[in-house]
């Protein structure tokens, strides 16, 4: 049975100050700050929490060809990549892959690459689960490692706050109805709230799509340009509706613009592409199937 961060009572109280602290130069601190800044886990940390994270991170230098995480092992560290490139491999039970097709060291199939500013190793620590993938360095790398206890202590507060915030909202979103509560909790962990005022665009027709969105409150319109370049409203969207899935499913550019409408601010929850693939796998098929229903079979006009 999976245990979530809230349920783990072994996590020490942050106020005991039992966290490790590795001295760093101002330059190093700045580099780590840059590296963790794009990462959802570290957004919205207060100053003290950020200071704790930075202090607890340990520099790790590795050469090329090192297995830094092995699938199935217990989770000990979370890593942020400062420099270098690593590859992510996943091996399914009993899977045999032709070495010529990239089964490096019997690690399975390459599913992703990590470079500067990326991070990995959070899943096993967040969910008390075995490592979900193997991570192999392909160049010399400088990584920042945060130990399991510090990771959980610092990020616990933040995560449980987010889960509470999104729990009831996600349970009312129809497309997510088939998911288990724990699966919705994992989605809550990675959602990021953003607001838009009337007339602002959340996504723009023709752009590359990197995120999926759920509407938390307010309303929006989906707009497509016709052949003469005139904007046509093709759909209205409100609380609980989703958009932005098409570009992620079809790997095409955004098929429409979605714009905030009305005097109430539009609030959306964004989910990045990697998380979309990882967490909405079961829902993705339903979404792909419902594309025709949502947007009309004939021309596909209005798809977002
Ligand atoms: P971990 O603690 O389980 C392995 O240790 C890490 O690989 C994992 O945390 C993630 O940070 C990272 N599926 C699972 N883990 C992934 C994936 C992934 N990509 C990176 N990691 N993918 C799903 C493939 C079906 C790839 C998504 C693009």
CATH topology of the largest domain: Jelly Rolls
N-to-C span: 38 Å
Q: Kindly state the percentage of residues in helix.
A: 25-40%
Rough outline: globular
Strand order across the largest sheet: 1-8-3-6
Second rung of CATH, namely the architecture of the largest domain: Sandwich
Ranges where pLDDT stays below 50 over 5 or more residues in a row are 1-16, 297-303
At the first level of CATH, the class of the largest domain is Mainly Beta
Strand content: 25-35%
Number of domains: 2
Order of helices and strands: HHEEEEEEHEEHHEEEEEEHEEHH
Per DSSP E runs of 2 or more residues, the count of β-strands stands at 16
Largest sheet features: 4 strands, antiparallel
Give a structural overview:
The chain has eight helices and 16 strands. It is α+β, with helices and mostly antiparallel strands and 304 residues long. It folds into two domains: 148 residues, Jelly Rolls; 123 residues, Sandwich (Jelly Rolls). It has a four-stranded antiparallel beta sheet. Strands 2-7-4-5 form a four-stranded antiparallel beta sheet, with no helix packed on it. A four-stranded antiparallel beta sheet has the order 9-16-11-14. Strand 12 and strand 13 form a beta hairpin. The protein is globular and about 55 Å long. The N terminus and C terminus are likely disordered. Ligand 1OR binds next to strand 4, strand 5, helix 3 and helix 7.
């Amino acid at each position: 049975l999976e245990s979530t961060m809230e349920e783990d009572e072994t996590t020490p109280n942050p106020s005991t100050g039992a966290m490790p602290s590795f001295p760093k130069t101002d330059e190093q601190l700045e580099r780590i700050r840059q590296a963790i800044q794009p990462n959802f886990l570290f957004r919205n940390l207060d100053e003290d929490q950020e200071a704790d994270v930075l202090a607890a991170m340990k520099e790790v230098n590795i050469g090329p060809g090192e297995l830094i995480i092995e699938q199935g092992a217990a989770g000990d560290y979370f890593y942020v990549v400062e420099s270098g490139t690593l590859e992510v491999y996943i091996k399914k039970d009993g899977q045999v892959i032709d070495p010529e097709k990239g089964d490096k060291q019997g690690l399975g199939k390459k599913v992703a690459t990590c470079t500067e500013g990326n991070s990995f190793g959070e899943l096993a620590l967040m969910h008390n689960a075995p490592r979900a993938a193997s991570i192999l360095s392909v160049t010399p790398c400088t990584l920042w490692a945060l130990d399991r206890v510090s990771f959980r202590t610092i990020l616990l507060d933040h995560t449980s706050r987010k889960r509470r915030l999104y729990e009831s909202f996600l349970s009312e979103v129809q497309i997510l109805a088939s998911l288990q509560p724990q699966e919705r909790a994992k989605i809550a962990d990675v959602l990021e709230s953003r607001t838009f005022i009337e007339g602002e665009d959340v996504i723009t027709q023709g752009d590359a799509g990197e995120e999926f969105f759920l509407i938390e409150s307010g309303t929006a319109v989906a707009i497509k340009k016709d052949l003469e370049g005139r904007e046509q409203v093709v759909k209205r969207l409100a609380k609980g509706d989703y958009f932005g899935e098409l570009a992620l499913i079809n790997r095409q550019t955004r098929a429409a613009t979605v714009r905030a409408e009305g005097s109430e601010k539009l609030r959306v929850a964004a989910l990045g592409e990697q998380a979309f693939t990882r967490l909405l796998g079961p829902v993705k098929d339903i979404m792909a199937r419902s594309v025709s229903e949502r947007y009309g079979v004939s021309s596909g006009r209005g798809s977002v």
